[in-house]
Design brief:
- The protein is α+β, with helices and mostly antiparallel strands.
- It has helices spanning 3-26, 33-38, 127-144, 208-220, and strands at residues 47-49, 65-68, 77-81, 87-88, 99-105, 113-122, 149-158, 161-170, 181-189, 194-202, 222-224.
- A seven-stranded antiparallel sheet has the order 4-5-6-10-9-8-7, with helices on both faces.
- Strand 2 and strand 3 form a beta hairpin.
- Helix 1 crosses helix 3.
């Protein structure tokens, strides 16, 4: 992969550093209590939507769907499941310009269940090269921080588009167990640009309920053709 490609990737990698790493290694997402406690009133607007015929290749899940606002009608449209008790939060709005939306659950004090959506333009190259480079930089960051973590990659698709799931697990013994972190990366075509869409999630440790809710979010996440292509 060319240096130019890596440079265009840097916003994603910085977002990864700020979003995935605190969640996986510290055991908590970066503080979300203020907005989660306030509820969705101050969060980005998101309206429940129904799946349409254009979403026929997406996985249906047993949860309401939220339509994530697009910055431009040429971008892919994004939809995310909303399990019961999960609410949009704007606490991550200032973390990185790539962050488009976040949804969280928790006790209002130290929430550990978070899903964060990012999207940004990338070079028009083979999707697997994108995934390989992204994963390698994550592993390099973990090694540089001397963290005993493993990253497991699984190829998949989202609404028929190439995707990869990255599961980050703690291999260190004797310490506090961190929140399990999973990232779904999707390479999607906009009307005039290729995009990397990521969904970063954490689940509460040792909670089957939390794991099920996060699995629902990951399975039902939808990346659809841009609104401009429907005109």
């Amino acid at each position: 992969m060319t240096q130019r490609t890596k440079e265009q990737f840097m916003p994603s990698i910085q977002t990864l550093k700020k979003v995935i790493l605190p969640a996986a290694m510290v055991g908590l997402m970066i503080p979300l209590s203020a907005c989660v406690a306030q509820g969705p009133a101050d969060a980005k607007d998101a309206e429940p939507v129904a799946l349409t015929a254009t979403a026929s290749e997406c996985t249906r899940v047993d949860a309401p769907m939220l339509d994530i606002p697009s910055a431009r009608d040429t971008e892919p449209r994004l939809r995310i499941p909303q399990p019961s008790g999960w609410r949009p939060t704007n606490e991550l709005d200032g973390v990185d310009e790539a962050v488009r939306f976040a949804i969280a659950a928790g006790d209002g004090q130290r929430p550990q269940e978070v899903a964060v959506v990012t999207m940004e333009p990338i070079p028009d190259v083979d999707a697997q090269l994108i995934f390989d480079d992204y994963r390698a930089q994550l592993e390099d960051m973990l090694a540089a921080k001397d963290l005993s973590m493993t990253v497991r990659a699984t190829a998949t698709t989202v609404c028929g588009q190439p995707a990869e799931t990255l599961s980050v697990t703690n291999q260190a013994g004797g310490g506090r167990q961190g929140a399990p972190a999973t990232q779904l990366a999707v390479v999607a075509e906009g009307a005039d640009q290729t995009y990397l869409v990521t969904l970063v999630t954490t689940a509460a440790p040792n909670s089957a309920k939390s794991e099920h809710e996060v699995a629902t979010i990951l399975a039902g996440f939808a990346v659809l053709p841009p609104a401009a292509s429907q005109l």
